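sry for the spam today, last one i promise. C-alpha cells for design, 133 residues
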C-alpha cells in the first residue's frame, strides 16, 4: 500500500480497514529507537507514522487520485511506547470539505488499551488533472 520511500523505510504496513477508518502498523525497528538499546521507538518516527497514516486516511475517502498536503499536524504524547513493541495507529476523518480534510488518529502499543499519542491534522486536497503543469 505504501509507495512513499519514507513509509517503506519505516516498514509501515496496512493492517485493516474498519468502515472508513484505517489501522496501520509500524513494526519495532532498533534503528528507530530514541535512546540506543532502550527498545523504545523515537517520537519522530511515531510523528511520521501518524502523519503518513492520517494522509492515507484522507486518500482513502476519495474515488479519484488526489494531491494532498499536510497543512497542520499536532501530536500529543501521553505515554512512552512499550519497549520492543510495534506502534499501531487507528485513524478517522472528522470532516471533509471542498478543499480541506480534518482527520485524527490514536497511536497504541501492545494491548491497544492505552493511547500513547494522539494526532490531529488538516490536509488540503485537490483533484489531479493529467497534462497540467
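last one done:
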Amino acid at each position: 500500500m505504501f509507495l512513499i520511500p519514507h513509509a517503506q523505510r519505516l516498514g509501515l504496513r496496512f493492517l485493516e480497514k474498519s468502515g472508513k477508518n484505517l489501522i496501520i502498523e509500524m513494526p519495532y525497528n532498533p534503528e528507530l529507537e530514541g535512546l540506543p538499546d532502550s527498545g523504545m521507538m523515537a517520537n519522530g518516527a511515531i510523528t511520521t507514522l501518524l502523519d503518513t497514516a492520517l494522509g492515507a486516511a484522507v486518500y482513502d475517502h476519495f474515488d479519484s487520485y488526489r494531491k494532498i498536503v499536510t497543512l497542520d499536524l499536532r501530536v500529543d504524547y501521553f505515554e512512552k511506547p512499550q519497549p520492543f513493541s510495534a506502534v499501531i495507529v487507528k485513524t478517522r476523518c472528522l470532516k471533509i470539505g471542498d478543499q480541506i480534510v480534518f482527520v485524527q488518529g490514536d497511536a497504541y502499543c501492545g494491548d491497544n488499551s492505552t493511547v500513547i499519542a494522539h494526532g490531529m491534522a488538516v490536509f488540503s486536497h485537490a483533484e489531479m488533472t493529467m497534462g497540467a503543469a
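The chain has a mean pLDDT of 91. ok im logging off now
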